[in-house]
């Protein structure tokens, strides 16, 4: 599965595809914009391990970093109001 971000403002001469995220963990959840809308985080899963990918929402959707999350089965994420941290939660079933 992959998640694609398309620009609605691209001119006909531009490619509207801005970003492709491979292996998103959830088809319609597991992603969140920061309160100001400047950053976007998405959960991915590779080889049975959970990861977060963080992007700066700009013209080019620049990936700032990605890292493995120490969860058994990540279920969701939220930005803190200060945009300096992310809160993730794990499954209650172990």
Automatic annotation (TrEMBL):
Q: Which InterPro entries match?
A: Centrosome-WD_assoc
List each coiled-coil range.
none
Q: Domain of life, per the record?
A: Eukaryota
Q: Name one GO cellular component term.
A: microtubule organizing center
PANTHER family assigned: WD REPEAT PROTEIN 8-RELATED, WD REPEAT-CONTAINING PROTEIN WRAP73
Q: What is this protein called?
A: WDR8 protein isoform 3 family protein
Organism of provenance? Toxoplasma gondii COUG
């Amino acid at each position: 599965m992959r998640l694609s971000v398309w620009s609605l403002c691209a001119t006909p001469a531009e490619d509207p595809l801005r970003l492709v995220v491979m292996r998103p963990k959830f088809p319609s959840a597991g992603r969140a914009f920061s309160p100001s809308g400047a950053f976007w985080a998405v959960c991915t899963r590779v080889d049975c391990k959970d990861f977060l990918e963080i992007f700066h929402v700009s013209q080019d959707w620049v990936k700032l970093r990605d890292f493995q999350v120490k969860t058994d089965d990540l279920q969701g994420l939220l930005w803190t109001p200060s945009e300096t941290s992310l809160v993730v939660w794990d499954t209650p079933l172990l």
